[in-house]
Write a structure and sequence with these properties.
Elements (H helix, E strand, L loop, with lengths): L2 H22 L2 E4 L6 E3 L6 E2 L10 E4 L4 E4 L3 E3 L1 E4 L2 E5 L2 E4 L6 E3 L2 E5 L1 E6 L3 E4 L3 E4 L5 E6 L4 E4 L10 E3 L2 E4 L1 E9 L6 E3 L7 E11 L4 E4 L2 E3 L2 E13 L8 E4 L2 E11 L3 E3 L3 E3 L3 E4 L5 E3 L3
Parallel strand pairs: 1-4, 2-5, 4-7, 5-8, 6-9, 7-10, 8-11, 9-12, 10-13, 11-14, 12-15, 13-16, 14-17, 15-18, 16-19, 17-19, 18-20, 19-21, 20-22, 21-23, 21-24, 22-24, 24-26, 25-27, 26-28, 26-29, 27-30
Antiparallel strand pairs: 1-3
Amino acid sequence: MTHMNRILIALPILLLGSIFASAQGRYFTFQPLFGEDGYWDDPYNWRPVGGPPTRGDTAEIPIARTCRIRYNAEVRQLIVAGTLVINNTVLTMDPDGLGSTLTGQILALQNAELRLDSDLAINGTGRIAAALGNNWLSITGAAGRWLSFGDADDEPPRPLLEGGIKVRTNLRHGRFHVNDLYGPMEIGLAIGTGIEIQGKCDFTADPQGTIRFLQSTAGFTGSWKVQGGIIELVAQENTTGWANALHSVEVTSGTVELNNSFRTTGPLTFSGGKIRVAGGKSAVFTRP
């Protein structure tokens, strides 16, 4: 075999290796050049050299580090032990997204968006929140996409969503909390057939906090806990109401506002507060 033939054979092998590595994606760790705080888009803040992460890649934010996204970004997988800040921009999980791990926090500033072009499963004990003040995080998904937090039997507890968050994609499992410092939180779509809510989901409205359910259908276990705040089911034009809800309802103070018909096979615990049912609608609470 001539020297030229050996070169011609080697080139396709190298090309195939490059294609395989690209399909697997790259793994980047956030390591700011100066201090523990820096921007996602700065290539010098990532190891190995070659960042920032993009479509097909995995991004790790280690503990005690803060990574700030100020321009639209896309990634395949997130591993967040520190803090990831989405500041008035969009973070997209690409169509080949993998399960992500959250033991730190994802924090939204101004009007931020987490967009799902694939199903996203998040495990861990971390927190997704809109920062204090007039800050929002919209979690949106392509048609049929699901946002899942752990599973129904997770111990310790599943990741926490807190504050002014608008969930606009199908939802499975999770813990959701608002109080007077955050919110309101919105679950569902403003128009259309809405989203599905399944698995074990626990929603807690503490004093002056509001959780509002828009167009949605509920087949989840878990609970509504009203502890001085408001949980509201809005009038839903395209459904007959939550006819097959499975979760428990606990009201110690505050208000449950039912502007659509509601039936749950979970128990009702009522020790204070109010349950209001709109005219022409009904509410039925039955034990399983």
